Amino acid sequence: MSKTFLEVIDSRISATQFSDKPVSDEIINQILQILSKCPTARNAHCYHICVVKDEKLKQQVAEHSNNQMWIASAPVLLVFFRDIKKRREVTGSDAEEHFSLVDATIACTYAQLAVENLGLKSRWIGGIDNVNMHKLFGLNPLFVATSVLPIGYVNSELKHNHQPYDMKTVTTFH
Ligand SMILES: Cc1cc2nc3c(=O)[nH]c(=O)nc-3n(C[C@H](O)[C@H](O)[C@H](O)COP(=O)(O)O)c2cc1C
Predict the structure, then answer these.
(1) How far is the CA of 160 from the centre of ligand 1 (A)?
(2) Which DSSP string corresponds to 7-40?
(3) Which of 82, 123, 145, 150 could form a disulfide with 100 if both were Cys (CB 3.0 to 4.6 A apart)?
């Protein structure tokens, strides 16, 4: 299944409930292939993604997401980390450390749009324990969690209840 770009943008809506339908490895690989084409600072891909299907680990990620326990009902969680260690190695200093956050954020945005294009739903979770999340995966503390993306199928069509944002409030022309 493939939508036009505008169909992806128009149909994207956040879900908080998912059906039991499993998400195949093929779908996950397609999402990761799309992420491989993300722009990143110095083309260095200073982020890391944990793909989580394990039930116990999903529960722990939900606990580390301000106890938003519904997250664990998604068949798959994508947990995004900024990779500060790699960023320091690429730059040779901590001068561009913030770019790892930008890389991880762009990757999560691409993932959300890829998910939508493939006929699944997601919700960006930013309310997370970014200090401790790495411990669940045995990662170095310089892997700092930036977002969690629960993904899955939904049973019924989700309805948008938001109007397009008034861009005049956030735009100036020069
Ligand atoms: C940076 C960021 C952090 C967010 N954090 C959470 C969160 O912790 N929990 C949650 O349920 N939704 C979270 N959301 C989802 C937003 O609430 C949601 O995208 C917004 O209400 C607009 O709805 P829509 O995605 O359906 O357009 C977050 C979204 C963003 C972009």
Answers:
(1) 14
(2) HHHHH--B-S---SPPPPHHHHHHHHHHHTT---
(3) 82
Residue with tokens 């039930």: 55
Which residues have CB under 8 Å from 34's CB, separation 6+?
Answer: 110, 111, 114
Q: What does the pLDDT look like over 104-130, one tens digit per residue?
A: 999 999 999 999 999 999 999 999 999
User: What percentage of the chain exceeds 90 in pLDDT?
Assistant: 93
State the DSSP code for 125: B
In 10 A of CB 38, how many CB atoms?
17
Q: Which two tokens mark 108? A: 């999560």
Percent of the chain with pLDDT over 70: 99
Architecture of domain 5-170: 3-Layer(aba) Sandwich (3.40)
Q: How far is the CA of 62 from the centre of ligand 1 (A)?
A: 15
Cα–Cα distance between 123 and 3 in angstroms, integer? 19
| pLDDT band for position 1 (cuts 50, 70, 90) | low
- Hey, where are the domains in the chain? 5-170
Q: Is 101 in the pocket of ligand 1 (CB under 6 A)?
A: no
